[in-house]
Specification:
The chain is α/β, with parallel strands linked by helices. The chain has four helices and seven strands; from the N terminus they run E-E-E-E-H-E-H-E-H-E-H. The structure holds NADP nicotinamide-adenine-dinucleotide phosphate.
């Protein structure tokens, strides 16, 4: 049940859930006291429908919130994180919140600090989505430490966790996008 460090793809086949239209409702409240206090709702099309989005760190926190937002806009989403268990929980949450839009979410388990695993995760996302139009990098986090506790080794670990986990994905994705 722990972290699965082997890169593997787990397509989330989630069905039988109610759905709604992909849109973002924006409420405009009038300052005019004479105007009826009825909110107007504007539909804003962000033109993300059918865009193929790879989100690293998509199983939790900011990455998971991004996945929900993109699905709401009608985009197709692949999420990457190390733990297959976290990915499965994320898929369940997305299905709860985004219904039918979440049924084709592609979940890829990979440790993005590893160059080969990151490249493989990109390939699996491409295979699942048919390509990548948008990349959101939100994986990993560096531990906060008081400056006098920092050492070159800790700097290196932090850069591996937080910087190279991004570069390892950006590099193959940019090269694919340039083709
Ligand atoms: N939250 C904030 O206030 C804040 C502010 C500024 C910047 N940020 C930055 O924004 C990013 C996301 O923050 P967050 O708060 O959403 O973090 P979080 O809740 O800790 O989520 C991190 C995500 O990254 C995945 N992950 C961690 N290490 C990984 C690795 N080596 N390979 C693949 N996936 C990995 C985690 O899943 P697994 O554990 O399953 O791998 C999880 O999905 C971080 O880089 C953070 O430093 C956050």
């Amino acid at each position: 049940m722990g972290t699965n460090r082997r890169a593997m793809m787990t397509p989330c086949r989630l069905t039988g859930i109610a759905t709604g239209p992909p849109h973002m409702g924006i409420r405009h409240l009038s300052n005019d006291a004479r105007a009826p206090r009825q909110p107007k709702h504007t539909i804003m099309d962000l033109e993300l429908g059918n865009q193929r989005v790879l989100i690293t760190g998509g199983s939790r926190g900011i990455g998971l919130a991004c996945a929900a937002g993109f699905l709401r806009e009608g985009a197709r989403v692949a999420i990457v994180s190390r733990s297959a268990e976290n990915l499965a929980k994320a898929c369940a949450k997305l299905a709860e919140g985004q219904g039918e839009f979440a049924k084709d979410v592609v979940a890829v388990s990979a440790d993005l600090t590893n160059i080969a695993e990151a490249a493989r995760a990109v390939e699996e996302a491409v295979a699942g989505l048919g390509g990548i139009d948008i990349l959101v990098t939100s994986a990993g986090a560096a531990k906060r430490r008081p400056p006098d506790e920092l050492t070159p080794q800790l700097w290196q670990e932090a850069m591996t966790a937080k910087y190279f986990s991004y570069i390892n994905v950006i590099d193959p994705v940019v090269k694919r996008m340039a083709q």
